Amino acid sequence: MTWQLPDAVTIVEVGPRDGLQNEPGTVATDVKIGFIERLAATGLGVVEATSFVSPRWVPQLADAAEVLAGLTRRPDVRYPVLVPNERGLDGALAAGVDEVAVFGAASEGFSRANLGRSIDESLAMFAPVVTRATDAGLRVRGYVSTVCGCPFQGEVPVDDVRRVTTALLELGCVEVSLGDTIGVGTPVQVQDLIAALTGDVPLDRLAVHCHDTYGQGLANTLAAFEAGVRVADTSAGGLGGCPYAPGATGNLATEDLVYALDGAAVHTGVDLAALVDVSAWMADRLGRAPTSRVARATLAKRALADEVSAAGSATRDDSSA
Ligand code: HMG
Ligand code: MG
Question: Which of 19, 38, 60, 85 lies most in the core, judged by the most C-beta atoms within 10 Å?
Fold first, then answer.
């Protein structure tokens, strides 16, 4: 069977936001800045930097303004931030961002847990954010969470995903990212979902955002590419999760996706070896190994090569003594 993959895709790196929002401890602002700058240097074109949300809800990202103030931004990289309301937009505008994302859900239970509001109330909250951001010349992205399942209600009807996706596009979002927030989806389910949305939603306005809780993130993302989607969100090192989605683990690791796409000659612009270095650097700061299989395999291979080369030079030293 021949895979129907595109020639090129866009990766939206969400590690500094989705990853670090879920850390139990506080990550220092300069480490966050170092993480974002290192990620942007690997060739990633989009690095989601942080969120302008309530620090009572997400204390991990309370330093959003400081992160953006300290960041050296590359002209060829976009640095979107999450904003739920006008207060968040004010902070983002003051920080000089070029892109914001509002974030809704396809299920009522998750909407209430994550935003303290029903779906309709959340859309009403987003409306002035999208209008003002667009008027200010910003690109506006939307998220729809729980598209493959909800931690509170279980199955989520496709009609509910369609309703929120089209509502976000009608508000003025240029792209909507379909979030499998708790990573329960499977590849055929993802393709069925995209097929069901096609007709109401142009494929070039969609992205996928697959958490890897059940190990399906890579298969689900490739399934979405086969179905015609061209943008995927991933997280370096497989960091991530949502504090308001019980049981969810990290996103699909960026290096796991880049490895698969390199193998299929699909262009991402990302230097895989450099990306593994960044994931290892961040994992060191967090005091644990990256969860990504590609990062672990690459680091193990490098350690073995170092051992072989050290043993070789020890043998040469012995023979020359
Ligand atoms: P609320 O409690 O309904 O609103 O929060 P409030 O008006 O009562 O505000 C509570 C406090 O926060 C107040 O301060 C506000 O001033 C302040 P206090 O009076 O206690 O001192 N506040 C703010 N502060 C800074 N920036 C703001 C802001 N707004 C209010 N923008 C709100 C409503 C939406 C703000 C809250 O529910 C919230 O911040 N939620 C964010 C939750 C979140 O960030 N979740 C993770 C991101 S979503 C995700 O991970 C899923 C995704 O990855 C896709 C996927 O995986 O599916 C995107
Ligand atoms: Mg997420």
Answer: 19
